[in-house]
Amino acid sequence: MILFRIILFILILHCNTLFAFTILLDPGHGGDDDGAKAMHTFNKEEVLIKEKDLALQISLKLQEILSKKYNVFLTRSIDRTVTLPERAQIAEKLKADLFISIHINSAPDKNSFGFETYYLDNNNDVAVKKVEKTENIQSKGEEVVQQILVDLVIDQTVKTSKPLAVMVHSEIRKKVGGKYRIPSRGIKPGLFYVLALSKRPGLLLEAGFISTLKERQRMLNEKFQWDYARAVATGIDNFIISSTKKKRK
Ligand SMILES: [Zn+2]
């Protein structure tokens, strides 16, 4: 009986620590901003597929999985316009512990394959610059973040964001890359305003290429969306468990 009580006590303590964690999921784009787009043929009919819709579908699934253990919120749960500073304000208001932005890639080369995981840091890679340019497109004029602020946020978040990126990416590689035979394009540092503005440890995920037929078909599939969401959730879960263990030591 005593043993049972001890186990129950540990379990309650464990659950409380996990539920104290707030995760903000950020489906990229929305409303007036479609994000990347591609025409797709469904039963001989041409349909325009938009990044904003795929990003939301994946994010909602991720929310459903993560909500079982954590406080999970979305920057948008419907198709609506949310500016990058507004997304950051939501993160600030919620005092989110993690900020996870979900996006879909696009490239002129119709044979681009793979998934990428970005965390906030400076870099000089040309390919990374291209993705940055697309995902930062909303941010102009007064919304452009001051470099000093960005440097400060990088200093504060990179130590958390990088290991988070490693854990999430490795789960995607194992569970999605392995199952669907999709190549990993790696974990990359990038200067994303939404990550900088949120001032939280976080990631920007590019699930696949909307511009590549095979990848588009796959991402439209609910089963794939669940597999991808489950992999991301497991990675986040592993990260939170390992960081709460470290804190207790
Ligand atoms: Zn995007």
Topology at a glance:
Elements: H1 2-19, E1 22-27, E2 37-42, E3 45-50, H2 51-66, E4 71-74, H3 84-94, E5 98-105, E6 115-120, H4 126-135, H5 147-180, E7 184-190, H6 193-198, E8 202-209, H7 213-220, H8 222-248
Parallel strand pairs: 1-4, 1-5, 5-8, 6-7
Antiparallel strand pairs: 2-3, 6-8
Helix pairs in contact: 2-8, 5-8
Bound molecules: zinc ion (ZN).
Zinc ion is lined by residues 28-29, 35, 51, 103, 135.
Which key phrases capture this entry?
single chain, 249 residues, alpha/beta, two-stranded antiparallel sheet, 8 helices, 8 strands, 52% helix, globular, binds zinc ion
Give a structural overview.
With 249 residues, the chain is α/β, with parallel strands linked by helices. It has 8 helices and 8 strands. The protein has helices at 2-19, 51-66, 84-94, 126-135, 147-180, 193-198, 213-220, 222-248, and strands at residues 22-27, 37-42, 45-50, 71-74, 98-105, 115-120, 184-190, 202-209. The strands form 2 sheets. It has a 6-stranded mixed beta sheet with strand order 4-1-5-8-6-7, sandwiched between helices. A two-stranded antiparallel sheet has the order 2-3. It is globular, with a radius of gyration of 18 Å. Bound molecules: zinc ion. Zinc ion (ZN) binds next to loops.
